Amino acid sequence: MRDFSDDHRWLSLNTATVRKQGDLAQIVDACARHGIRAIDPWRDQVAAIGLDRAVRIVRDAGLDLSGYCRGGMFVADDAHRQAARDDNRRAVDEAKALGASCLVLVVGGLPQYSRPGSVASRDIVAARARVDDGIAELLDYARQVDMPLAIEPLHPAYAADRACVNTTRQALDICDRLDPAKSGAIGVALDVYHIWWDPDVLAQIERAGKARLLAFHVCDWLVPTKDILNDRGMMGDGVIDIRSLRAAVEAQGFAGYSEIEIFSNHWWEQPMDDLIHACIARHRTVV
Amino acid sequence: MRDFSDDHRWLSLNTATVRKQGDLAQIVDACARHGIRAIDPWRDQVAAIGLDRAVRIVRDAGLDLSGYCRGGMFVADDAHRQAARDDNRRAVDEAKALGASCLVLVVGGLPQYSRPGSVASRDIVAARARVDDGIAELLDYARQVDMPLAIEPLHPAYAADRACVNTTRQALDICDRLDPAKSGAIGVALDVYHIWWDPDVLAQIERAGKARLLAFHVCDWLVPTKDILNDRGMMGDGVIDIRSLRAAVEAQGFAGYSEIEIFSNHWWEQPMDDLIHACIARHRTVV
Predict the structure, then answer these.
(1) Which tens digit of pLDDT belongs to each residue from A197-210?
(2) In what order do the strands lie in the sheet with A68-72?
(3) With an 8 Å Cβ cutoff, are A228 and B223 in contact?
């Protein structure tokens, strides 16, 4: 297991962590100030400054992209399916232009939440089938431009509105169906927030192996959690045994960035540099 | 599958649903007014009026008890283990005195939340081992008085503070280890709120079979969920395909009560009779 205590060369900043503190250009500047080598930007943040400018400032700053957030939301009714397909292909293209290591997929939940305007449904089994089809279709496109797809299983608390892939096992089952050869074209993005509770997680990380482990995200689960979406904790402030999970992915050969992704009403109110200082300190001591 | 549309003979009221509207005696009176044949009372509600009186009013009203809430919280440090053991044995005794069909077990999460005052830990693997031991020990006691134990897997959102048994598979694994003969001494209490998201749930209900299906609870998952504990929905107001889950347990031969358990800041503010009216209506149309 790598020693993170001396530096933060393996820290990547998911830019949603500081989305309220500045635009993508300001975030990239902050990364330079703090010696952060990698980011994972969100599509809306890229769109806000324009893709061309985003490509330029990322390249000029010499930043790696540990991922691009995000494709997915595959669950749609017939009337919204083409738009979902087109949208996801654009996400692949943007990821490619930015030089991201993978496109993170949040697969969508029920159609009315995944693609608003779709006919409402309570059929999560059907939603999961639609996800399988959507990923299969996008994978054909992504293979052509050599952009790996990283399925992110989301905590079951988000099964209805964000992702009906809720366990690492489920995500790997999809990978194995679509890419039995483990070519590197598809894998998983594992965020400790989503997987820490899973009694099967260590076995599934072993099953994943290096070829499927495309990204590793950290934050913490707070008790109590005051907001189901935007009350993630800074690493060390919650109950997740982060180091055991990092040890498990590194035991499989994962050697990528440890990406910090904190959606937090609390932290969004702090000055950008204070928040980044905290991230770096906890990366060294807790992650 | 039973037809619930004509009457509510299979409706049981978990008394936490109306805990803010009255004490257990008032709740029992309300059940009589509304033709409700079964309840599942909580220990604190029984204690508030005294066990002897609770036994008497339940018997006088001719009420069935579809369960007794609750035993568990097995995860404790050494200093708190004896107290946890004694507390759980008392829960068995109370369930027996009240004539409950089973004692529902919410197994506990990390020790600092499960048994406050215990030394804090982030080791959920150790917590799960402690749960195994605690249930094994309690089962020996419960067998002597013929009180079935019903392990309730809780939604992963409660893994830290309430229950580290988070899937039906996990609960059944414990049952199979402790009671391979399926004697009826131990099984599961399945609440749609906790299990609806699980991609494995239908297979696990089939695995459970009639012998392990000791209780079935209903409410709904709201989107958005505004409070992680106390924003459960009335059946039909959320996203859970309740009828498919009831069909699955009944296909295994489950023929017990459909118990309504709604923790809701919203519903706790409604008059008791209005809330019970809504429960009965939705039981007939949605459950």
Answers:
(1) 999 999 999 999 99
(2) A64-65, A38-40, A11-14, A258-260, A213-218, A186-191, A149-151, A103-106, A68-72
(3) no
Mean pLDDT estimate for chain A: 98
Distance, in Å, from the CA atom of A108 to the CA atom of B252, rounded to the nearest integer, reads 31
Residue-wise pLDDT tens digits, A205-254 = 999 999 999 999 999 999 999 999 999 999 999 999 999 999 999 999 99
Whole-complex ipTM: 0.97
In A, which residues are within 8 Å of B118 by CB distance? none
**Which CATH number does B11-285 carry?**
3.20.20.150
What confidence tens digit (pLDDT) does each residue in A69-109 have? 999 999 999 999 999 999 999 999 999 999 999 999 999 99
CA distance A138 to A89: 7
Between the CA of residue B27 and those of B21, B57, B246, what are the distances in Å? 8, 11, 26
Task: Enumerate the residues of chain A whose CB falls inside 8 A of the CB of residue B198.
Answer: 156, 166
Distance from CA of A93 to the nearest CA of B (A): 32
Contact A224 B225 (CB under 8 A): no
Per-residue pLDDT tens over the stretch A18-66: 999 999 999 999 999 999 999 999 999 999 999 999 999 999 999 999 9
Q: How far apart are CA B22 and CA B43, in angstroms?
A: 15
How far apart, in whole angstroms, are the C-alpha atoms of residue B32 and residue A36? 67
pLDDT tens-digit map of B60-116: 999 999 999 999 999 999 999 999 999 999 999 999 999 999 999 999 999 999 999
Long-range Cβ contact pairs of A114-120 (< 8 A, separation 24 or more):
A114/A73, A114/A74, A114/A75, A114/A76, A114/A161, A114/A162, A115/A73, A115/A75, A115/A76, A115/A77, A115/A80, A115/A83, A115/A84, A117/A79, A117/A80, A118/A75, A118/A76, A118/A77, A118/A79, A118/A80, A119/A77
Q: What is the DSSP letter of B269?
A: G
| Alpha-carbon gap, residue B69 to B189, rounded angstroms | 11
pLDDT at A143: 98
- Residue in A107, A123, A124, A191 to test binding to B, most B beta-carbons within 10 Å: A124
Looking at residue B137, its pLDDT comes to 98
- Give the number of A-B residue pairs with CB atoms closer than 8 Å: 73
Looking at residue A205, its pLDDT comes to 98
CB contact under 8 A, B159 and A197: yes
- The shortest CB-CB distance from A155 to any of B123, B156, B225 is to B156
Exposure string over A69-101, b if 16+ CB within 10 A, otherwise e: bbbbbbbbbeebbeebbebbbebbbbbebbebb
Testing the interface with B: which of A131, A223, A265 to mutate, by most B Cβ within 10 A? Answer: A223
Q: How far is A197 from chain B, CA to nearest CA, in Å?
A: 6
| Residue B14: strand pairing partners | B40
- Count of other CB atoms within 10 angstroms of residue B109: 27
